[in-house]
Amino acid sequence: MTPARLRALCLSFDATVEDFPFNPETSVFKVLGKMFALTNLDARPLTVNLKCDPDDALRLRTDHPGLIVPGYHMNKRHWNTVTADGALPDRLVRELVEDSYDLVVAGLPRAERLKLDRA
């Protein structure tokens, strides 16, 4: 996964914007104002913080030690830091980004979720 592909993937979801609320280096991808991914696209190795179901988070950390770890500077129960530098299959990274987006959308008020379903 390249930084450009990660950025394009995050921005491909409905109502997603890239913001820089913390510093000019940290891209924060939000859906309707709620974060679903945080990354420094210039960092090596490339990592991304993603929201995750707590049970899945533990399983993923066990299955991919050192590549998926508790979220750096995040709630460690609900966030993972995923190394996206090619050590994990791109397909898995894409699924984890999509799952993060879906979890955040599921937590939005119903009226906001319905806006996302419209063409």
UniProtKB/TrEMBL annotation:
It comes from Streptomyces capillispiralis. GO terms for molecular function: DNA binding. This is Putative DNA-binding protein (MmcQ/YjbR family). InterPro entries: YjbR, YjbR-like_sf, YjbR/MT2646/Rv2570-like. Pfam families: YjbR. Gene3D superfamilies: 3.90.1150.30. Keywords: DNA-binding.
